[in-house]
Amino acid sequence: MEDNTIEEKWAYVYGFADYQISNRGNIRTANWETVPVIYKEQAIYAKLTLDDGPKYYNLAYIVANAFIQDKPENFMRPGFGKLIHIDGNNFNNHADNLRWQNVFQS
Fold first, then answer.
1. Which residues contact residue 13 at a Cβ distance below 8 angstroms, ignoring those fewer than 6 apart?
2. pLDDT tens-place string over residues 43-67
3. Residue 69: what are its φ and ψ, rounded to 5°?
4. Which CATH number, 3.90.75.20, 3.40.50.2300, 3.90.1150.30, 3.40.50.720, labels domain 11-102?
5. Is the torsion defined by CA of 24, 9, 61, 31 positive or negative?
6. Which sign does the torsion angle of CA 70, 72, 78, 84 carry?
7. What pLDDT does 105 receive?
8. What is the pLDDT averaged over residues 1-16?
9. Pairwise CA distance, residues 80 & 19, whole Å
10. Residue ranges of domains in the chain
11. Phi then psi for 97, rounded to 5 degrees?
């Protein structure tokens, strides 16, 4: 269910100047066109296109990269961290439901 009490804020997707992501987990092109998404393997993926063609990206990570500032150091190295859905619902990609967690946190 959509929580309309939270003001929707938009930011450009890092590395994709033609796309914007909202703190509610909505994604669009810079021209306000809808971006295709698929529900797969307990996550939502957005279809983004660069020069090398379209690829699917995990929507939660796009939201977190745009709105969650406390990413652990070395996050991209295997075993150093992950993204947590606070309420346990992997389809709830609101920024306030996401938290970076390194392997040293519980």
1. 19, 20, 21, 27, 48, 62, 65, 66
2. 999 999 988 899 999 999 999 989 9
3. -90, -15
4. 3.90.75.20
5. positive
6. negative
7. 54
8. 82
9. 28
10. 11-102
11. -105, 5
Joined tokens for residue 65:
């990269």
Nearest to 56 by CA among 31, 79, 39: 39
Do residues 22 and 8 touch, judged by C-beta distance below 8 A? yes
CA atoms within 13 A on the CB side of 64: 22
Q: How many CB atoms lie within 10 A of CB 16?
A: 18
1, pLDDT greater than 80: no
Q: Residue type at 15?
A: G
Confidence of residue 93 (pLDDT cuts 50, 70, 90): very high
Whether this model's pTM surpasses 0.70: yes
Work out the angle at residue 87's Cα, subtended by the Cα atoms of residues 83 and 88, and round it to the nearest 5 degrees.
65
> Distance from first CA to last CA of the chain, Å, rounded?
28
